[in-house]
Design brief:
207 residues; 7 strands; alpha/beta; globular; Rossmann fold; 44% helix
């Protein structure tokens, strides 16, 4: 299987490449080679490589930065980019796997109850809203898709909340360190998620 991974330089994209490359042909173009917000660049890439599947790990993921970023920029990257990939996937008959997030929910569910696919969607942040719009774009443009809502991704490389906490604790020493105690989530190791993405591809999952 020939698999195109966008955002391959990131934590999850990099792990997906490592997990899949032993059994599949994996392509991880740099942003200079494939800018997903450009329809012409996207369609040229698909025409050139004819992928069997595309895994979209690209996007703006810094929640705080999204709150300050121009709405036009956020939608270009987090909504229009995925839409371009979905339309190209439909045209070339390949599977589209899109990485969304748990911020499409409002976080008001009683702890420790988990969220399910059919729970009401009510994002409370600019970032969450853009990811919900991206999901709508995928569903409306690709007949063969998988949407994965990830949460608190972490890995040995890259910037992530878990690494920030661990680094803070190590640097603080015996004096300790203060962290917010009102944040709850499900930390997800990128390697484990990459393994599940591989299984979904092999088993032909949808939805």
């Amino acid at each position: 299987m020939k698999i195109l991974i966008t955002g391959g330089a990131g934590m999850l994209g990099g792990q997906c490449a490592k997990v899949l490359e032993s059994e599949h042909e994996v392509l991880c173009p740099e942003k200079e080679e494939l800018d997903i917000v450009s329809w012409d660049r996207v369609i040229d890439m698909f025409d050139h490589i004819s992928p069997d599947a595309v895994i979209n790990c690209a996007g703006l993921t810094d929640m705080e930065a999204c709150e300050d970023e121009d709405d036009y920029v956020i939608k270009k990257i987090n909504v229009e980019g995925p839409r371009n990939l979905a339309q190209a996937s439909a045209r070339f008959g390949c599977k589209m796997i899109h990485i969304s997030c748990g911020h499409v929910f409002d976080g008001q569910k009683a702890i420790p109850q988990p969220y399910f696919e059919d729970d009401p969607l009510n994002p409370t942040s600019v970032y969450g809203g853009s990811k919900l719009e991206s999901e709508t774009a995928i569903r409306g443009n690709s007949p063969n898709y998988i949407i994965i809502r990830s949460a608190w991704l972490y890995d040995v490389r890259g910037k992530n909340f878990l690494k920030t906490m661990l680094s803070g604790i190590l640097e603080a020493g015996p004096g300790g360190i203060s962290f917010p105690n009102d944040h709850f989530g499900s930390p997800t190791w990128c390697y484990r998620l990459a393994l599940q993405i591989k299984e979904l591809l092999v088993q032909g999952g949808r939805g």
